[in-house]
């Protein structure tokens, strides 16, 4: 078997991690290229003014577009990009859920084609098990360590299961280290709404120390050109002053849907105007009459999920969080009147509240026009459709009706539809089977494989990253098989 080919992965977030990992396991020498692989320790930026923007210890570093070169103007779309090592995985919420068959009805794949890759990824990252793992929406992680959640939340889940047969509910499955044998074990410090100081939330950065991996750091890939037997990468340094080339026999592009569009469009491999699909989001505050948590010191990752089983409402997904002291601080900062109320009183009142983030399928979510101008800059403009907003209202109403049965009520005036892209689940501008093949090759290319969410056929409601990783690993394996079997 000839394993002397030079294969490169561009992008070190979850998608790049997945494909690099499977190729290494299959005996390929992989070069990992990223704008910034090193941990950056600039943590002081005390400007946490939005609940939706999860910063890293109050620093917005992960969202800064520090490499010089073409700009990405996200406008009012709230689409987030990160050039930090590990991409957005350094600040994500770590909720993990595989897609179900109904989530991928528009895909040219079925679930059995992803199953092996989900299993591959789940062995590489920590995933918590729950008492409810036997649900068909879940993979069986029963051998893993359990996530400790408050008794009150367990009671709540049980009573929703019992009294609301129309919805499926489960304790969240989270990608955090919680094995007592690990030095990174989660200590429930309650600070995870601002990243994880103790590295217990899984991030692809843990992979960079792998000695088998060749690394090419601190460069921004600008464009690619594909010839019969090699791919030429044109790149610049982070200052935008030195330009150079690298050559590989295959490239796996995992730079996130916006930068992947910029690179491909710049390379003449994609049009200048496309539509980015997005999973629409709304925030809602619920009030529980019973089962309030006695303390507000519980960790602040998502505690449980709900999925509505209504075919017409295309299976929206809701994640529930408790109001921990960190979130209360943010509210205090945003609402002047709350500043006058003593913290202990706010803690007491908010222990009755649950924060819900609702996600919808991209089919009923405004799309985002994404274009590249003549200077290579990218502009994003959300397209607002009134009727889609109405659909999300219907979904919220249905959830309210169900949860009333277990003594959980909502305040409509505390409900907020979020700008396109704020849910951080987007992609789908280069769908498989239509604009690229099943191995992520844009048409007319032979050795360039797109492995991030750019190639999704739609964006189902619910966490996206486990599937980004599974699909990326699937592509890696299939390309290896094409080449060597
Ligand atoms: C606050 C927040 C919470 C989230 N919570 C969840 C959650 O709970 N569950 C979930 O499933 N998902 C969540 N997500 C989404 C998740 O973070 C993304 O789905 C995931 O990071 C996408 O992975 P990726 O590898 O495709 O891209 P990215 O993570 O964006 O990685 C891209 C990488 O490519 C590098 N790069 C980009 N352009 C270039 C270039 N030109 N040259 C060289 N290198 C380049 C970047 O430096 C980066 O390392 C969350 C996101 C945010 C922001």
3D architecture notes:
- This protein is α+β, with helices and mostly antiparallel strands.
- The protein has a domain at about 1-125 and about 205-270 and about 430-485: FAD/NAD(P)-binding domain, CATH 3.50.50.60.
- The chain is built from eight helices and 20 strands.
- The chain has helices at about 15-25, 110-125, 150-165, 255-265, 325-335, 345-350, 385-405, 465-485, and strands at about 5-10, 30-35, 70-75, 165-170, 215, 220-225, 230-235, 245-250, 250-255, 275-280, 280-290, 305-310, 315-320, 355-360, 370, 380, 410, 415, 425, 450.
- The strands form four sheets. Strands 4, 11, 12, 13, 14, 17 and 18 form a seven-stranded antiparallel beta sheet that branches. A five-stranded parallel beta sheet has the order 5-2-1-9-20, covered by helices on one side. A five-stranded mixed beta sheet has the order 3-16-15-10-19, with helices on one face.
- A hairpin with an 8-residue loop joins strand 12 (about 305-310) and strand 13.
- Helix 2 (about 110-125) crosses helix 8.
- The model is unreliable at about 45-50 (pLDDT under 50).
- The structure holds flavin-adenine dinucleotide (FAD).
- Flavin-adenine dinucleotide (FAD) binds near residues 34, 85 and 221.
């Amino acid at each position: 078997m000839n394993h002397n080919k030079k294969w490169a992965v561009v992008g070190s977030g979850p998608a790049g991690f997945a494909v690099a990992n499977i190729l290494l396991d299959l005996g390929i020498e992989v070069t990992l290229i990223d704008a910034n692989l090193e941990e950056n320790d600039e943590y002081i930026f005390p400007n946490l003014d939005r609940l939706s923007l999860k910063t890293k210890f109050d620093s917005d570093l992960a969202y800064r577009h520090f490499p010089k070169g073409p700009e990405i103007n996200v406008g009012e779309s709230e689409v987030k990009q990160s050039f930090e090592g590990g991409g957005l995985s350094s600040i994500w919420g770590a909720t993990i859920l595989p897609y179900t068959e109904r989530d991928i009805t528009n895909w040219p794949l079925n679930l059995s084609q992803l199953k092996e890759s989900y299993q591959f990824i789940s062995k590489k990252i920590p995933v918590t098990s729950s008492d409810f793992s036997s649900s068909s929406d879940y993979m069986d992680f029963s051998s893993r360590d359990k996530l400790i959640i408050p008794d009150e939340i367990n009671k709540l889940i049980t009573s929703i299961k019992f009294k609301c047969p129309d919805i499926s509910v489960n304790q969240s499955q989270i990608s955090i280290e919680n094995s007592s044998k690990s030095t990174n074990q989660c200590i429930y410090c309650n600070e995870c709404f601002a990243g994880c100081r103790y590295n217990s939330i899984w991030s692809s950065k843990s992979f960079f120390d792998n000695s088998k991996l060749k690394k090419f750091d601190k460069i921004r890939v600008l464009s690619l050109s594909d010839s019969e037997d090699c791919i030429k990468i044109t790149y610049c340094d982070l200052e935008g002053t030195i330009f150079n080339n690298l050559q590989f026999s295959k490239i796996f592009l995992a730079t996130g849907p916006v930068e992947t569009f910029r690179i491909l469009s710049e390379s003449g491999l994609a049009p200048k105007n496309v539509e980015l699909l997005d999973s629409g989001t709304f925030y809602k505050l619920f009030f529980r009459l019973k089962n309030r948590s006695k303390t507000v010191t519980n960790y602040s990752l998502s505690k449980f999920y709900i999925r509505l089983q209504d075919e017409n409402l295309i299976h929206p997904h809701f994640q529930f969080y408790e109001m921990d002291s960190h979130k209360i601080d943010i509210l205090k900062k945003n609402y002047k009147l709350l500043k006058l109320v003593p913290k202990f009183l706010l803690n007491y009142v908010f222990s009755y509240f649950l924060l819900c983030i609702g996600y919808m399928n991209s089919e009923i979510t405004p799309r985002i026009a994404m274009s590249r101008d003549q200077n290579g800059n990218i502009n994003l403009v959300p397209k607002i459709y009134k009727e889609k907003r109405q659909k999300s209202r219907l979904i919220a109403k249905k959830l309210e009706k169900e949860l009333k049965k277990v003594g959980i009520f909502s305040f409509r005036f505390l409900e907020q539809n979020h700008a396109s892209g704020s849910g951080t689940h987007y992609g789908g501008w280069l769908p498989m089977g239509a604009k690229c093949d099943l191995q992520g090759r844009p048409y007319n290319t032979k050795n360039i494989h797109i492995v991030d969410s750019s190639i999704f056929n739609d964006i189902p409601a619910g966490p996206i990253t486990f599937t980004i990783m599974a699909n990326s690993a699937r592509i890696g394996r299939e390309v290896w098989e094409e080449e060597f079997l």
